[in-house]
Amino acid sequence: xxxxxxxxxxxxxxxxxxxxxxxxxxxxxxxxxxxxxxxxxxxxxxxxxxxxxxxxxxxxxxxxxxxxxxxxxxxxxxxxxxxxxxxxxxxxxxxxxxxxxxxxxxxxxxxxxxxxxxxxxxxxxxxxxxxxxxxxxxxxxxxxxxxxxxxxxxxxxxxxxxxxxxxxxxxxxxxxxxxxxxxxxxxxxxxxxxxxxxxxxxxxxxxxxxxxxxxxxxxxxxxxxxxxxxxxxxxxxxxxxxxxxxxxxxxxxxxxxxxxxxxxx
Amino acid sequence: xxxxxxxxxxxxxxxxxxxxxxxxxxxxxxxxxxxxxxxxxxxxxxxxxxxxxxxxxxxxxxxxxxxxxxxxxxxxxxxxxxxxxxxxxxxxxxxxxxxxxxxxxxxxxxxxxxxxxxxxxxxxxxxxxxxxxxxxxxxxxxxxxxxxxxxxxxxxxxxxxxxxxxxxxxxxxxxxxxxxxxxxxxxxxxxxxxxxxxxxxxxxxxxxxxxxxxxxxxxxxxxxxxxxxxxxxxxxxxxxxxxxxxxxxxxxxxxxxxxxxxxxxxxxxxxxxxxxxxxxxxxxxxxxxxxxxxxxxxxxxxxxxxxxxxxxxxxxxxxxxxxxxxxxx
Lengths: 265, 329
Fold this sequence. Notes:
The complex is a heterodimer of chains A (265) and B (329).
Chain A: H1 2-16, H2 19-44, H3 54-66, H4 68-71, H5 79-85, H6 89-92, H7 98-127, H8 140-171, H9 174-189, H10 200-206, H11 212-215, H12 217-223, H13 228-258
Chain B: E1 3-18, H1 22-31, E2 34-49, E3 53-57, H2 64-71, E4 79-84, H3 93-96, E5 100-104, H4 116-126, H5 131-145, H6 160-172, E6 178-182, H7 190-206, E7 210-214, H8 218-224, E8 227-232, E9 235-241, H9 242-250, E10 253-259, E11 271-277, E12 280-285, H10 293-303, E13 306-313, H11 316-326
Parallel strand pairs in B: 3-7, 3-8, 5-6, 6-7
Antiparallel strand pairs in B: 1-2, 1-4, 8-9, 10-12, 10-13, 11-12
């Protein structure tokens, strides 16, 4: 375990040194957030949609932007190079599990990204004038449930990143693999269009898929659009999905790596 | 001494996809794919003893890297048995790799954007090295490789030679019993090459590390070892002393002779005239002729008047080129 923590720490530290990257990401996410909020404000004309109020929508968008790194599925930073160019052979010669090495790299990287970016966006969003302001959480219970759900979302996001790693191993096309996973997860998970805006019938289906637990559930809980008992049930579902996905992806990866060939000298 | 590496009838096949040329070929390839099996390794057998340095040589594409990858547990062979340090590399991978160190000359195992020292500390965690032992090993490595002032710089800022020294140190932090070096001196300058060789000699002598090294630089082999395994087209062609290979061809001499005047025809008993231009001729001895300076001069001065002459023995690289040619590689 110590070694995996070491890998996590390494990526975390590595990511923290890119300040300019963080600032530019931050700026993009901030203005993109403003843009989305104005867009949906115009659509909603100050009325709630299916009980989803404008202030809830604003909080939902801001949190989505602040925790962009959770919603956005990414590959572990070096995996692309490792798989396509064959540097992965060095991962094989460590007395460690290959899946776990990537998992903890990705986790460290994502956490560093989140910590660098979430606070400035949240602080600015809190002091913006109405109707752009991020509201305080509905209650302490909601806030704690929000944090719990967010942590599960983070792990789910890393796991979906591992699906992209798996597809990269299979296809040797990291960009394509990542796009597939991101489009599916973003569309079905409420990252592009907030789920409350979707028809109830579709929402019912999406509740059974893992994607909304990556980029929808925590922000819904925060904004108080779900009551506490529903929140707890859905957190339980997201946890079940997390374990199921980790199991399946690990299994797939195991078989894929068995057949791996590292070519060239 | 006992065998630390045993390779028994190892075969490795790769499936490669073929495509007809041109646009039509590309379109056809969408529907029907042809493939071909390539035998990268063909019944490879050899043994390596503990504490040896062994040079693993052969032309590009002969199967050297494939062998190294099988030995380091990265690839699973199609068939055959292999036992290294009591383990089957691809089966007991996690346990086995603790006892080996690998350096691929063209890849990097250290982390790109953090100081080298941080990479080393992570390796310490990964291999579970006790702090005291780690410090001791690191001090020795810093001392022989002279990498003290490089440790606090990120890897991306180091030159190729500095990087290679750090890679070597990284591969040896856990004091592996076996070290695999895949073209470790590729692209290095003369001084760094010497440093790398001295280092390999040192760890072989002091730590009794078994070293398997692939290289195209025959001076590496000359400086480090007398044991070579020659592989070509996936087959082991020679396994034995390097000295023997050299002697086999070292008898062949090229003699350049400058004559006092131009002769129409030059004939020397026991020698071939390779070229003849004005008053300079290049001769080569017949394989059965043992070159002897005195005898040669006597023979040639009987018929011709000469001004000067020089004798060239073939270089190690030429030995290898001949060898490859002889085996039709």
